[in-house]
Amino acid sequence: MASSDERPGAYPARNGAENQPPGDPETMKTVMIDKGAAMMQSLKPIKQMSLHLCSFACYGHDPSRQIEVNFYVHRLNQDFLQCAVYDSNSSKTHLIGVEYIVSERLFEALSPEEQKLWHSHDYEIQTGLLVTPRVPELVAKTELQNIAKTYGKFWCTWQTDRGDKLPLGAPSLMVSPQDVNMGKIKPGLLKKRDDEYGISTESLKASRVDIMGPERKNPMADYWVHHGKGLAVDIVETEMKKLAPFP
Amino acid sequence: MEKAVHSSTKNGPKVPGEPTKTGTSMVDTAASAVQSFAPINQIHQHLCAFHFYAYDMTRQVEAHHFCGHINEDMRQCLIYDGPDANARLIGLEYIVTEKLFMTLPDDEKKLWHTHEWEVKGGFLFMPGVPEAIQRQDLEKVAKTYGKVYHFWQVDLGHQLPIGLPNIMMAVTRDGQLYPEMIKETGKQFGVSMDKERESRAYMKGPDHGIHPLANGGGKGLTLEVREVDIKPVESVPRVFV
């Protein structure tokens, strides 16, 4: 089983019609228990997410497949961010993965094998693909300048773009839009996003001309661009090291 | 038995990096005031449980789940290595009812694990919520299946999330989890898992019993990365962005 597998066959719930996972609406009892619990629990880690970014990503084993992504970002320090990734910004959304973002300094200390799994962010910021909804450009500028110099690692665990009603298969390594034909975002996808947010990616480019990428872009990042090969993830059966019988 | 490898943000390595500069944090403050965080606002529940690696039961991790309902039959959770503000985001979990689990293709089912013993054994709990209220929800969780990926091997002391994702599994019978780890967590959160086990004896697992293909189907699971051919990057028609 691999992240690059075609749709698994004979899966009854997929009709592509609407993208909601199968399942009944929440009962009132569930809602009440949830609300009651939420009042008693502090939920501190998730309250640390203080920035919403919207951009695009491509599948690492097939970069011609592109998706809109919404990141909810927690900046732990000047060099590291951790993000929950969703396929839309509404309450009816799917958690599709996690992205980690590191500064150039932290990235350079990684092994080359590890660096292959990461992507750069400068192109998507300079071209206005990555936006900070509702935050004026002038206010966002410092963060955009920071993030333009970073590298990201994004695992996607739910391929909703191909109609999966439930998260199936292996996680996919994702890559970022890049300045090659295959890495450019399809106009239809871009327009849909821009219309939804009432923005114009094109006009953002002008305000971002002075945003610079990393001092020295590492050639191990964006591996597919420089080496012409994608990266797929396989799930492999093996022996489990055990302390007791399982299951 | 091997020494417990118990992950906790109290003792774990700090994430490397300079402290956040004022100019940067000001953007985040402004953003959090005006932006919508609708997906995050769906998260209403904190569950603490234990996971082990799907190829290595000896490596066990305390996992703090922050969950939201997509609908009555499905939850999606962010997993952190602790309950505090500085906790590291180490993975995610999807939780589905038996009804949805049964619609999965057979070779998908092995990636999912059952929650019956995690709940009935008292190992999974909601910090801060009185037991009687917890049970109203946990009796449902006992019947569900979960799919967990961890992306950060904090139990190996990794300062950054390097390497490939790992499928994780959960406890299915006594003797699997390190007693010292369970005791320490119980003490930290003021819960008595033994007592809870008695109170949860009435709970039932999936109506059709634990599916034989779930929990790895009896096998260990690991991930590998592989290079694949892609079309030449300039071969697609040029679009202007």
TrEMBL record, chain A:
| Domain of life from the UniProt record | Eukaryota
Could you tell me which residues belong to the region Disordered?
A: 1-28
**InterPro entries, sorted:** OBAP-like
- Mention any Pfam family matching this sequence: DUF1264
PANTHER family assigned:
OIL BODY-ASSOCIATED PROTEIN 2A, PTHR31360
Q: Which family does it belong to?
A: Belongs to the OBAP family.
Name of the molecule in the record: Oil body-associated protein 2A
Automatic annotation (TrEMBL), chain B:
* Location of region: Disordered: 1-24
Q: Which InterPro entries match?
A: OBAP-like
Query: Which Pfam families does the record cross-reference, listed alphabetically?
Result: DUF1264
Q: Where is the composition biased (Polar residues)?
A: 1-11
Q: Which family does it belong to?
A: Belongs to the OBAP family.
Name it.
Oil body-associated protein 1A-like
Species this protein is from: Camelina sativa (False flax)
What broad taxonomic lineage does this protein's source fall under? Eukaryota, Viridiplantae, Streptophyta, Embryophyta, Tracheophyta
